[in-house]
Each structure stands twice: as structure tokens, then as C-alpha cells.
Design a protein that fits this description.
378 residues, Aspartate Aminotransferase, domain 1, Aspartate Aminotransferase, domain 2, 2 domains, 15 strands, 17% strand
């Protein structure tokens, strides 16, 4: 057994590997969250948020996983009488639907099978009925390694006048997100994906229009209070202090690399993963033009057992990848390649996969996957 959680190539679909700089920032001595030191760090975080989101806006940081940000946003902007359209084509689309239904009594869910786009005509048809308060969608469907085409969806939403609310938990700092061009009114991300910080913080960005309409309906997740306090570099309740310090360092690292460079690196790793998948004779779950740059979902070849493959990868190669969710458990596995994932991690993962397939009598030309990946390295 070689699995060692401290050194494993950690390639799940988030949380992702955390850089030692970010880990060290978290192990700082206790600090007073109402004192100058902490306020200064929060101020610097606040100033870096437009860089993260690629646009100025109204920002909140909540102590809670990504879902807390989704719930804070939907609860503040959706009212029981509102007509809301939810696009759902994966596990997180289904979750978004559940959250929206807690806060609006008139939700129409437009579903497509996991990993397939919701037809634009069905969205257009539903919007034409009028009086839609908000369209809610996931940007990057982590469960299916699938990115919804927001550039195509956005003009329909904008024309209708509805608020455009996006779950960007596995897209922000991983995929291009054009908030202004696409007219996104609200987007939420989590600390544990493209940002490569520990799990436990949700970051919310609202447009001026959405900000003006915030009517909080929960106490702990009161967005208005979070906006008001963050403007003073503060938080309404005791924040998850070590996580804020870690987020500060992760944002500094993102700024040093540059958002565009982070996106380009994530894209290159995704292309290399897809090339490795082809070379192994495996198949992506999502149609290639929708394949996500932050997480690849790969079909388990017939006759092979997903759990056993991942177990050998873990225990023999010290590489951790992730299984499928819901009805795709056992049918697909997922490789995350966002945040600070390295080329070495990817090569090790594919070296292991190649050996496992080879031993199962499914090997293709030895070394082809690694050569395909190497050919895409900068
Ligand atoms: N939405 C998407 C697209 C996700 O990938 C995840 C988590 O993987 C979530 C929502 C839920 O986020 P959290 O588990 O941080 O609450």
C-alpha cells in the first residue's frame, strides 16, 4: 500500500490540492476577528475579488461551503410568488432546483439528461410566457464534466429581463466567466475548487440590479448583512478565521499567476487529459464540445469495476480520483484538473490508468497516453 493522503496526487473534482503556502497561512496564531490585523487581510481579500470574478460588483464571503452561498443568494432574490426557471442537467442542477423550490412556489424545471444541454428552444419557449423573475443554472456541472454554454443561454435571459443566477462553484477561476457580457446578476463560487483554498467559504458576486433587490429571508445567511460588513472589511458573525487567511493567500497566488494564465493552464491540463483519455481508448461522458476544463468525467469501460480501478490507483499509485454521483455511480469516474493541479500529477494518474488497463487486457500502445499528455505540456 502506498496511499499517503499527505503526498497523494489529489485529483478529485474538488476540494483540490492546497499549496503549502496556503496551508501555512491557515496555521497562523489565533487572531482577533475584530482587530486590525484581520480587517487588513479581509480588506486585501475584498480588493482582489473583482480580479477573481473579472468584474466589479457587490461581494459577500460566507463561512459555509458553496451551498451556503447558493442558498443565501436564492433566498434573498426569490420570493414565493415569483416564477423561476431552473436549468438542470446534472447533480448540481438538481440541487439548485431543490434550493430554488424552497424559496419560490412557481419553479419550472427544464431538465436534460446529465451531461447534455437543455435545448435553448425550451428555455426560449418558457421565457416567452413572460413574467419570469429569475433563470437559475449551473455553469460547470461537476457531476458530469460538462460546461453549460452560458454564452448561448445569456442572450435569451437578458432579452427576457429575468435575473440570471449562476452556480459558478466549479467554474470561477477555472473557466472563462464573462459576467458583464453575459449579463449575470448573481454568481456563487466555493473556496475549494479553482481557487485552490480549503473548503468552507462561499463567495458571492451580485450585479447592481440584483443587489438592489436583495431581501434576506434567513438570518445566518443574510446577504445584506454580509455585503454591509464586508464593505468595512468585516463579517457579521465570527468568521471561519483560518479559512479567510487561507483564502487571502490563495488569492495572492492567483494574482501572481494571473487569472488569464490560470485559465489557460487549466485549459491545457484539460486538453491533455482528454488526449490521454483518447490514447487509452476510453470515452468522455460529455460531448466533447461541452467538455469541462475543470473536471473530466470518463466512462468506465464495460466489464471493469470503477471502485476496483480507483482502489488500485489509490493504493498502488498514490493517486486519488473520484467516482460518479447518483445514477452514474460505478459508470463514470472523474478527474479534477483545476486549481494548482500539476502536470506531474496528471502524468502519474495516466501512468497508473495505463498499467491498470493493460493488466486487464485492455491496453493500447504503451506510453501513448503519457506521450499525448507530454506533447501538450508547455
Ligand atoms: N455546485 C457545484 C457545481 C459543485 O461542484 C458543488 C460541489 O462540488 C456544489 C454546488 C456544492 O458545493 P459545496 O459542497 O461546497 O456546498
Amino acid at each position: 500500500m502506498t496511499f499517503d493522503p499527505e503526498t497523494a496526487a489529489f485529483l478529485i473534482a474538488g476540494p483540490v490540492r492546497i499549496h503549502p503556502r496556503v496551508l501555512r497561512a491557515m496555521s497562523f496564531s489565533s487572531v482577533n476577528h475584530r482587530g486590525d490585523y484581520f480587517h487588513q487581510r479581509v480588506g486585501e481579500i475584498r480588493e482582489m475579488l473583482p480580479m477573481l470574478f473579472g468584474a466589479p460588483g457587490h461581494h459577500a464571503i460566507l463561512s459555509g461551503s458553496g451551498t451556503s452561498g447558493l442558498e443565501a443568494t436564492y433566498s434573498a432574490l426569490l420570493r414565493p410568488e415569483d416564477r423561476v426557471i431552473v436549468l438542470s442537467n446534472g447533480n448540481f442542477g438538481e440541487r439548485g432546483d431543490e434550493i430554488a423550490r424552497r424559496y419560490s412556489d412557481h419553479v419550472t424545471t427544464l431538465s436534460a439528461p446529465w451531461g447534455h444541454p437543455v435545448p435553448l428552444e425550451s428555455l426560449a419557449g418558457e421565457l416567452e410566457k413572460g413574467n419570469v423573475r429569475a433563470v437559475v443554472t449551473v455553469h460547470n456541472e461537476t457531476s458530469a464534466g460538462f460546461a453549460n454554454d452560458l454564452a448561448a443561454i445569456a442572450p435569451l435571459v437578458r432579452r427576457s429581463g429575468a435575473l440570471f443566477l449562476v452556480d459558478g462553484i466549479s467554474s470561477v477561476a477555472g473557466l472563462p466567466v464573462h459576467l458583464q457580457e453575459w449579463g449575470i446578476d448573481g454568481i456563487v463560487t466555493g473556496s475549494q475548487k479553482g481557487l485552490a483554498a480549503p473548503a468552507g467559504l462561499a463567495l458571492v458576486h451580485l450585479s447592481d440590479r440584483a443587489f438592489a433587490e436583495v431581501r434576506p429571508r434567513t438570518h445566518y445567511l443574510d446577504l445584506a448583512a454580509h455585503f454591509k460588513f464586508l464593505e468595512k472589511n468585516d463579517t457579521p458573525w465570527t468568521p471561519a478565521i483560518p479559512l479567510f487567511l487561507a483564502l487571502h493567500e490563495a488569492l495572492l497566488m492567483l494574482r501572481e499567476e494571473g487569472l488569464e494564465a490560470r485559465l489557460a493552464r487549466t485549459h491545457a491540463l484539460a486538453e491533455a487529459t482528454r488526449a490521454g483519455v483518447d490514447a487509452l481508448g476510453l470515452e468522455l461522458f460529455a460531448e466533447r464540445r461541452y467538455a469541462s476544463n475543470t473536471v473530466s468525467a470518463i466512462k468506465i469501460p464495460g466489464g471493469m469495476d470503477d471502485a476496483s480501478v480507483r482502489k488500485v490507483l489509490l493504493n498502488t499509485y498514490n493517486v486519488e480520483v473520484q467516482g460518479g454521483q447518483g445514477e452514474y455511480k460505478g459508470k463514470i469516474f472523474r478527474i479534477g484538473h483545476m486549481g494548482i493541479t500539476s502536470w506531474g500529477d496528471l502524468l502519474l494518474c495516466f501512468a497508473g490508468l495505463e498499467r491498470i488497463l493493460g493488466k486487464a487486457g485492455r491496453g493500447k500502445s504503451p506510453g501513448a497516453a503519457l506521450a499525448a499528455i507530454e506533447s501538450r505540456m508547455p
